[in-house]
Amino acid sequence: MKSFIFNPSEKWFKGEIILRYNLKTLLKLILFIIILPFAVLYYLGKALWQSACWLGKNLWQGICWLGRKLWPVICGLGLLLLAFWIWLKGLFRKKAKPAEDPQTATSDRRRNWMWLLILLLLLLGGILTWRSCTSKNNADEPSAAPAQVYDNSFDRVIVARAYLDGVQTTVSKDCPRALVGFKFINNQPVKDFNFTGMTYEQAIQVVAEDWKPLVVDNLSADVKLSEQQMAVVTLVAMRMGKNGFPRSTFLQKVNEGDFDAAGKWLLLQKKNGEIRKVGEEPTQYFYMLKLLWNNQLQIDDLLDLPMFSYRALPLDSLYHADGSCNFNEHIQQMLKKGNFTTPRTALEL
Prior knowledge:
GO biological process, one term: killing of cells of another organism
Helix content: 55-70%
GO molecular function: lysozyme activity
CATH architecture of the largest domain: Orthogonal Bundle
Keywords: Antimicrobial, Bacteriolytic enzyme, Membrane, Transmembrane, Transmembrane helix
Radius of gyration: 33 Å
Largest sheet: 2 strands, antiparallel
Order of helices and strands: EEHHHHEEHHHHHHH
Number of strands: 4
Number of domains: 3
Strand order of the largest sheet: 1-2
InterPro entries: Lysozyme_dom_sf
CATH class of the largest domain: Mainly Alpha
Protein name: Lysozyme
Distance between the termini: 66 Å
């Protein structure tokens, strides 16, 4: 309550102003004032942390790239410069001191041994760094044998199928839990397979060998695929089936080695090659396969995403005007939300 005196045109008025507060609104305002600084600090800290992680990851990738591409050259030049510097230093020392006593000569030899030891340690560290970088890179590089790459990549297929198609609790008492994402194995229901007495690895091998002819026999022996690419090819074969996959334009482009064009043909086609009109789920499904094929998303990243989370993606936000995949921050956050458990938990990895 506030008293006042007002004097318009030399006439005095006296009265009171009464302010009525809405306690609920006032409480919201106070909470907003309290929470706002913490929210700003949280999102600022999150942004700084993500930036630091991104910077660290890319810096390490840059160091590994230097190790793979330029390290032998840098190491060789460094050794040459170091050897030239040691030779030049010794040359000037000899000219400056034509006669040395035994104690000085012994001290010089010790210093030379120290330089040699440092040189060997630098060389050893360089070799270890180069090998650690190249070994990781070689694991992702395409292999010459599609059959071997297929065998090595099937664990990734399991993870991707768990995320894309889900993992139920049981299909039958004899069917391993981790295989129920495979509703059909080459058009035969999973529950019709006899898995009695098999370990998980043995059951996975049954599934892998069952799909192997469809994938490997239709791939050119000359095509070189990474494990992730092979996993995507396998997923496409499973989705298209034994009739659709061999005649698909996607497979044709893969065998031609035109991987960019192959990514554009990750879709369903009719028998005559026409593009089939599909609904919401196939559109979202093949969008995820394109992300994996283009390395915009790694299969290992699917381990910690809720299963089926891609089903909440709006269709009008999946692609840019030029047809390329839209994988912005908003979509990445949507993929992290969902009511289902993650493949890591479902597969007990």
